[in-house]
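Weekly puzzle thread! Below is a chain. First person to post its structure in token form gets bragging rights.
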Amino acid sequence: MDATTEPTEPTPRDSAQTPDAAVEVPIRTLLAADSPRTVQVDEAHAQALAHSDRTLPPLIVHRPTMRIIDGTHRLRAAVLRGRDTVGVTYFDGSAEDAFVISVEANISHGLPLTQAERSAAALRILRSHPDWSDRGIARRTGLAARTVATLRRREAPGPEPPGRVGQDGRIRPADPVRGREAAARLLAGHPTASLRQIAREAGIAPSTVRDVRRRIGEGADPVPAAQRRSADTPAPAPPRCLRGAGGSHCPHWSPACARTPCSG
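Winning reply:
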């Protein structure tokens, strides 16, 4: 898929302190978790943690609200052990990113989330982070990317963002066909513009603009047939030369231009 390099995809966990920075806080100051779980506490699991001999990791807490992000069962275990304080590390980001961290934590350890809980979490992340890729959300929620794509089409409200941030930190146009078609129009209207300038305006990578220019120069559709079929959109009319003179300096010049008068 066409891509353009941008800052890396937001990683909410990066804003949390490490366990080495844990501090003890009174349990009474903590608020219940905004958790993806429908059943907040499994008492049997909390009892098992309380009766174990191991030291439990600190909770992750959203500092602005003092709401638990990860560690509800560890908190319950601390209460069962008779503690009135518990170790926590703080996260200072948004409430939306705090929820993402909560989902990631529940996916990676502890009691597994049900399919329904993971789907509900994915839908909520789609609404708060519509520019994240299906694969990125799938990785965070433990779902298949195809499942996330189905949720996006069926239930996520709002307009489609022009691009999505992938796991590799690149922004890919939500509709690569439109990105290539936009580049073709821009090349026709601004034939002396640089690849990077066209790429920025069309929302695609400079290498993709180069490919669009090459395909136009060969008299081909700027969109590869496979992408055109997957998008199920008809090919537009070839862009007309707006320079008037044509010639090999034209961004969509081809050998056929030597036999056919320029239409510009």
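Puzzle host: Confirmed. Bonus trivia for everyone else. Residues 1-8, 13-20, 242-249, 253-261 have pLDDT under 50 and may be disordered.
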